[in-house]
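Researcher: I'd like a structural prediction for the single chain below. Treat it as a standalone chain; there are no partners to consider.
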Amino acid sequence: MRRLFCSAGLVVALGFGVSAWADDKKDSDNKPKDYKKEFQDYTVVNNLRGKLVKVDKGQSLELEVAVNAKTNKKIDFPTLDNMEVLWVNPPVELDDKGKPKKVKPQDRKKPVTGPGGIKGYPADPSDLKNGQIIQVILMQKKAKPGSKDKADNKPSVGAVYIIAEPKS
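Model: Treating it as a single chain, here is the predicted structure.
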């Protein structure tokens, strides 16, 4: 009888231990990216806001920026290999009828602080569409002490924040 209770107690204890270990593993998978570590070799040079004209997957972005009240200028920027894309506001999910879904407070995603210190919600590069209003964070590699070569160190897009969808 004593062995039975000890064995049952051991099985219960192992069950709690395994479930606690699984919960810890689940939490570590959901941790947001650490942008400070990912972009530690880069310096934020500038940020620009404009209309996305063209996306060349993984190569470059063309942005239309207002120069003054009457003129706009299209500028082509190269992108970093590890460019991040974030939404400024959480994307709206639609139900079957095309109406926005109501999201419960506990189901809402928390914003993360991305490159450039701006809070946003993680997105996918495939979310970028022509006509969107975006903000780009321009970065360049930090110069190594004693290095005089600045020709290769041109600013590139390190992060894109989607501000608004194109008007239909």
